[in-house]
Amino acid sequence: MSEKTSDKKRVLIINRRAPYGRSNARDALDVTLTCGVFEMPVSLLFADDGVFQLLGQHNAADIGQKNLSANLAVLPMYDIEDLYVCADSLQQHGLNADELAHTVKTVQASDIQALMRDHDVVLTF
Amino acid sequence: MALHTLNQAPGNTTCLERCLQALAPNDALLLIEDGVYATLPAHAAKFASLYQIDCYVLQPDLQARGIEDSVSAPFNIIDDAGFVELACEQDKVISWF
Amino acid sequence: MKFSIVVQAAPYSTQSAETAYRFANTLLQKGHELYRVFFYADGVHTGSALASPPQDEPDIPANWQTLATDHNLDLVVCIAAAVRRGVLDSNEANRYGKDGANLASGFELSGLGQLADAIAESDRVITFGA
Q1: In this structure, which of A90, B1, C28, C45 has its CB flanked by the most CB atoms within 10 Å?
Q2: For B3-14, what is each residue's pLDDT tens digit?
Q3: pTM for this one?
Q4: Which domain holds residue B14?
Q5: Which residues of B have a CB under 8 Å from any CB of C?
Q6: Is A13 left (phi over 0), alpha (psi -120 to 50) or beta?
Q7: How far apart, in whole angstroms, are the C-alpha atoms of residue A11 and residue A43?
Q8: Number of folded domains in chain B?
Q9: What are the tens digits of pLDDT across the range A55-90?
């Protein structure tokens, strides 16, 4: 990151909702991309039903929505690569980190506390 | 540290559980809106193991729901001004909904 | 302390919009600054000039308007979220060929850059959602 971005607020975006059933996932992604465009350091945490956003093979055409997974895949182009997934949430849904379609770091509760401490602003969706 | 606000009724168990997990020592928790129902004695055990976390509940929401007299430990009742003060004292606000 | 508020929920559907208003009002009464209120997702309905609650219920959009006038507030409604939900100013109504505009005065449509700016400039950002 450049010197300029180190002065900027670090934003943590917490995704707690599944994609498509509500607009939260899409709304969060739009805010994430905006932070990227404005060169604000942004991290994403996926927890609870939000972990479902990380599954692959989305095809939302027949329900009239844009493919969220495809849009998450462009985050690295905006230098947004700090993605985290809540281990408990994965376990509750019977998912393994290695079946997720995106590169994410698995975090425990104590890591989540640290993430919250290490960011200046936390936005939940 | 952080002020966590939670507005979901205790029937939304995942929301409460995830919020409680995220609380760190010196954080504060404020229950608002339907979240205030978690201050009923039946839910007290959920908060028993919180360590160094000040717990608050918003008075107008208790009053609206007729449960102001049922608030159990560890919750302190505060008003809207207290909510603003908490948001100032803590260094960020995290909303659980 | 300089606050910004993000409102994600529609008035009347959930309590969040009213809690957000009370929080805003209280922080201003206590002498703090409210840098921006950003209405996002269903929160954009707060900016509708057509909201017509019964007389014995609070008029949440009007309450925000009054607060904005009294304190020179910046009430920003996310333009993308608004137009898809049918909250348009006259520019957007023209652009989309709609018969009428309904963004209440005191609110303005703008993009997520305003939220990013609010985050950058504020001491505290608080989200009200449901």
Answers
A1: C45
A2: 999 999 999 999
A3: 0.96
A4: 2-96
A5: 5, 7, 32-34, 60, 80-81, 83-85, 87-88, 92-93, 95, 97
A6: beta
A7: 6
A8: 1
A9: 999 999 999 999 999 999 999 999 999 999 999 999
